[in-house]
Known about the structure:
Layout: H1 26-32, H2 35-38, H3 42-58, H4 64-80, H5 91-103, H6 116-152, E1 157-162, E2 165-171, H7 172-189, E3 195-196, H8 212-218, E4 223-224, H9 228-233, H10 236-262, E5 270-271, H11 290-314, H12 328-351, E6 353-354, H13 356-363, H14 370-379, H15 384-397, H16 406-411, H17 423-428, H18 438-456
Amino acid sequence: MTADPRLPQSSDAPGLRAAFSAPMADDIAKFVASVETDRHLLEADLRGSLAHVAMLEAVGVLTAEQATRLRHGLERIRAEGLDLDPAYEDVHMNVERRLEDLIGADARLLHTARSRNDQVALDLRLYVRDCEARLRLALAELTTALVDQAEAYADVVLPGYTHVQRAQPVSLAHVLLAYHAALTRDLERLRQPFISPLGAGALAGTAVPIDPRRTAQELGADGVFSNALDAVTDRDFAVNFVFAGALLAVHLSQLAETLILWCSQEFNFIHLPDELTTGSSLMPQKKNPDCLELVRGRAGQCIGELVNLLTTLKGLPVGYNRDLQETKPPVVRVGETVLASVNVCALAIRQMTVHREVMRQAASDEKLYATDLVERLVAQGVPFRTAYTIIGNLVRRGVPFSQVPADEWATLGLRVMPETFTPEQSIAGRTSHGGTSPARITDQIAAARAARREDLS
């Protein structure tokens, strides 16, 4: 195809330096380039451009023939892929450059009524929407694994802990469903509305007769921007995503920490298969839960990215500033890190072996039934603090409850037999809403299954 002699034949990105008399210095070009991160945005950029072409054709800015050529070129780039060249700064100009190679001068129509400012805002929003969808799918697998294991081990009892001290007997299902509840909140935070910024231009809109609502419809957006200046500046969606990812990473870290403790020799509550552990370079007997330790460790990276992102935004004047380029890497890094961590945790939950007898033995420590005895006294009309003091005095004596004489229990108004001190008996009494009794666990499992079915419908 013959080059148009009216067009500049510079090696610089098309049109970006038309008013400049010298090319950008190499060091500066490398410094401002964002292609390393932008490779993650290629698919989003092509999607946005295809929607933009459809809108421009619909409003009559492009002819059907021009729109068809642009679509064919963009689809070819999508099919072939594209290695981004730092000389063209970002994904947007790399796509335009490749498109011009493929279809010639018509490629220069693509940027009509569009700025890189609203384009990058759209690309990042599309990328965030895709990340949210991937994370929701992975979280669905993890939460389902938690419910499945809760149901499979509903009869397993172990000590519940506060301050990493044995507190009261609970079921294993109760613990697993606690993590399910936290991760369900994470799922909901990954459902923010998608608002299309395309059509905002650089900051003030455009004189070209466009239809941003049509573009938003093409993209499957939930709405369109209300103010062009805000549209190109807004990165709240990125902050929301990184915050949701960071908090999810914190929950995963807590789950990982629990599993790490449980598979230690000191607890020995669970065993992780060899496929999920690593060895020691010195001690051949070691099987280390390194993957879970890295889940725990990488939560700190995600928290740091949230601080990074908020700090980038806090000092910006209204309007697009190149600092906003630095909002892309935190989104990419958090999305990739948290997705990998979710998958690791799902594997660990699915493949752990539960040592039910070890757990039950630990839950059979009679001191764990102190609260049960307090509540029996309360049920007989004894004020709570009085009952608390009575049982506390028994604990201080250091005599196991099963060895307290029957006549001493009788003086307290209680008929207590040694066989009543079992973790199953303790759990059976916890019938309040959300409690650890078998009936309440059954309710929680049923509710989790129903919510999952509704989510799929």
